[in-house]
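Repro:
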Amino acid sequence: MKGKIKYQYATKMWKHNSPGGWYFVSLPKTLSKEIRHNLKWQEEGWGRMKAFAQIGELTWETAIWFDTKMGTYILPIKSEIRKKTDIKINQKIDMNIWL
């Protein structure tokens, strides 16, 4: 892993309610608060922070974004990842991310 700090959490995938909406997982608010407090300096435009994510055996390069309305970071789950992991909306997922 290229990221230095590992975070583990359980979450559920959800879909944004816009037409053709993206799929995301939200990081827990307490974890997001800790990350933002310690690593906000790494954020790029729109609260974007590079990351590596893992579901099961699948690891990929991605990013998290801070959503000010939700008060938490969100991580997009692309179609390729959904197919390879067979995760569904509202299914509990054990995630690892490295920042």
